[in-house]
C-alpha cells in the first residue's frame, strides 16, 4: 500500500479537480482542499481517509454513518464530489473469475431462505412508518415515479406511474389482480378504485400489512381488496389471476431464486394473463453489486440480501419460465428524479425524521438517519450515471397451443400496438383485438 504521505498527495490533486469546492480535515487537524468549501469532511479515522484517497466512497459512507467522519454540506454537493473521487466505474466488474460467480450464487441461495427474506424485508420496511411518511408522497409509493409531464410534483408523478402500470396491464372491471410486494397499498387501491378490479396484495412487512388493512376498512373496500402477510413462495391462490404486478420487489428475490420466482409468477397467472415486473436492474452486465464499496454499504445499512441483475439476465430467466416478454421500458431518468425528490424532502425534515426514528434509541436513530441521507442521494447519483437502471417488463403467459404433437407452439394474444399504454381508453384490451395474433 502507498504511504499515507503519497495518498494525501493524490487526494489533494483530486480535490482540486472536483466540480465543487471540497475540504478534508485530517484526524490531527490539518486541512486539505478548498478554503471556502461547499462540502467538508472531518475525519476521525485514518482508514476512512485511505478509503477516500483510493476512491472507495462506500467505505467513506459507512464511516459517516458510524460517526467516524463528520459531514458538513448538502447531499447534492456531496454527491457531485463523490462522483469525482471515484477511480473506476462502479457498475463494471473488476475481474469476474468463474469461481467468483459460483461463490456469488452460493451466497445468494444461502441468503434467501424464507426466514432470512422475512428478516431482510422487516429490517428495511418496518423501520418507521412515520419516518417514511416524511419524504414519500401521500400514498407512500416507494418506487420509481413516472414524470410524464416535467412540471409534475412527486405526488402527481407517482399517480401517473400507478396509472401507467394499470394501463400496461390492460386492467378491466372484474379482473382478478395480484400485487406481489404491495407496499403501503398505493397500486392495490388505485387499481381497485380506478379500474374496478378485485385486488389481492401480499407483503412481508408487518407495518405495511397493518397500514393497508386500515385503508381497506376506511374506504369500504373489504369485499374487493385484501392484503396477506406472507412470502410469495407460500402464497396459495384459489385460482390463477388475470393480471399480476410486482413493483420494487424482485430486487429482494436473489439471483439464485430468480428462475423459481418467475415460475411461481407464471403459475399464479392464467393463460393469456399479463405480468408487469417493475424493478431496479444492474447497470453492468456481470457485476454482482456496485463497486467502490457502495454495494457493501447498501447491504449493511439499507437492503440486506438485496441483489441486482442486468435486464438481459432478468429477461433470460423470465423466458426460461415460459413467460413471453411483450414490452420493456427503461425508466432510469425518472428514478433519478424520484430519488432526488425523496432526498430533498428528507433534507428538509431532518429534525422530525430523527424524532420518528427515536423508538430505536438516539444512537441508532442518528445512524439510520445518516444512512438514509447517503442512500437516497447516492442512489439518485447512481441512476443519473447509469450505474443502475429501472425496467418495467411486461410479459404474457402464452394462452394456448397452436398445432399438435411435439412441435406445438404457444399463442399470445395482446394489443397489436403500444398506443393503448398511453391512452385512458383501453378498448384494445377489452376486445383483446389483434386479428393477426388470434389463435386459430
UniProtKB/TrEMBL annotation:
Keywords: Lipid metabolism, Methyltransferase, S-adenosyl-L-methionine, Transferase. One of its GO terms (molecular function) is cyclopropane-fatty-acyl-phospholipid synthase activity. Pfam families: CMAS. Its EC number is 2.1.1.79. InterPro entries: CFA/CMAS, CMAS, SAM-dependent_MTases_sf. GO terms for biological process: lipid biosynthetic process; methylation. It is an enzyme of class 2 (transferase). It comes from the Bacteria. Belongs to the CFA/CMAS family. This is Cyclopropane-fatty-acyl-phospholipid synthase. It comes from Acidovorax delafieldii 2AN.
Amino acid at each position: 500500500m502507498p504511504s499515507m504521505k503519497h495518498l494525501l498527495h493524490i487526494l489533494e490533486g483530486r480535490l482540486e479537480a472536483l466540480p465543487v469546492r471540497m475540504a478534508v480535515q485530517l484526524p490531527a487537524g490539518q486541512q486539505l482542499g478548498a478554503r471556502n468549501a461547499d462540502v467538508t469532511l472531518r475525519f476521525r479515522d485514518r482508514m476512512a481517509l485511505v478509503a477516500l484517497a483510493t476512491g472507495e466512497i462506500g467505505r467513506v459512507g459507512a464511516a459517516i454513518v458510524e460517526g467516524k467522519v463528520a459531514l458538513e454540506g448538502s447531499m447534492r454537493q456531496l454527491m457531485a464530489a463523490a462522483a469525482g473521487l471515484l477511480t473506476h466505474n462502479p457498475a463494471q466488474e473488476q475481474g469476474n473469475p468463474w469461481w467468483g460467480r459460483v461463490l456469488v450464487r452460493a451466497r445468494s441461495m444461502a441468503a434467501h431462505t424464507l426466514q432470512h427474506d422475512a428478516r431482510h424485508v422487516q429490517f428495511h420496511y418496518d423501520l418507521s412508518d412515520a419516518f417514511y411518511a416524511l419524504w414519500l408522497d401521500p400514498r407512500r409509493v416507494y418506487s420509481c415515479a413516472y414524470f410524464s409531464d416535467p412540471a409534475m410534483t412527486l405526488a402527481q408523478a407517482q399517480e401517473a406511474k400507478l396509472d401507467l402500470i394499470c394501463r400496461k396491464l390492460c386492467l378491466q372491471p372484474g379482473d382478478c389482480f395480484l400485487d406481489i410486494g404491495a407496499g403501503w397499498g398505493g397500486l392495490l387501491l388505485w387499481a381497485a378504485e380506478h379500474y374496478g378490479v378485485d385486488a389481492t396484495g401480499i407483503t412481508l412487512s408487518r407495518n405495511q400489512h397493518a397500514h393497508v388493512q386500515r385503508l381497506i376498512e376506511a374506504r369500504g373496500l373489504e369485499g374487493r381488496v385484501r392484503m396477506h402477510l406472507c412470502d410469495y413462495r407460500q402464497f396459495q391462490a384459489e385460482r390463477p389471476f388475470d393480471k399480476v404486478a410486482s413493483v420494487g420487489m424482485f430486487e429482494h428475490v436473489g439471483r439464485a431464486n430468480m428462475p423459481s420466482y418467475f415460475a411461481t409468477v407464471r403459475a399464479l397467472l392464467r393463460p393469456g394473463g399479463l405480468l408487469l415486473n417493475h424493478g431496479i436492474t444492474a447497470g453492468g452486465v456481470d457485476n454482482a453489486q456496485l463497486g467502490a464499496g457502495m454495494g457493501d454499504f447498501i447491504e449493511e445499512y439499507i437492503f440486506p440480501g438485496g441483489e441486482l441483475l442486468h435486464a438481459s439476465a432478468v429477461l433470460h430467466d423470465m423466458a426460461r419460465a415460459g413467460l413471453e416478454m411483450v414490452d420493456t421500458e427503461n425508466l432510469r431518468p425518472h428514478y433519478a428524479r424520484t430519488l432526488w425528490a425523496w432526498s430533498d424532502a428528507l433534507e428538509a425534515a431532518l429534525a422530525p425524521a430523527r424524532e420518528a426514528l427515536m423508538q430505536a434509541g438516539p444512537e441508532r436513530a442518528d445512524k439510520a438517519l445518516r444512512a438514509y441521507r447517503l442512500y437516497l442521494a447516492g442512489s439518485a447519483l447512481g441512476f443519473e450515471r447509469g450505474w443502475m437502471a429501472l425496467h418495467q417488463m411486461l410479459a404474457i403467459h402464452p394462452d394456448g397451443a397452436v398445432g399438435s404433437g411435439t412441435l406445438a407452439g404457444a399463442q399470445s394474444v395482446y394489443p397489436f400496438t403500444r398506443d393503448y399504454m398511453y391512452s385512458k381508453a383501453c378498448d384494445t384490451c377489452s376486445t383483446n383485438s389483434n386479428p393477426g395474433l388470434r389463435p386459430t
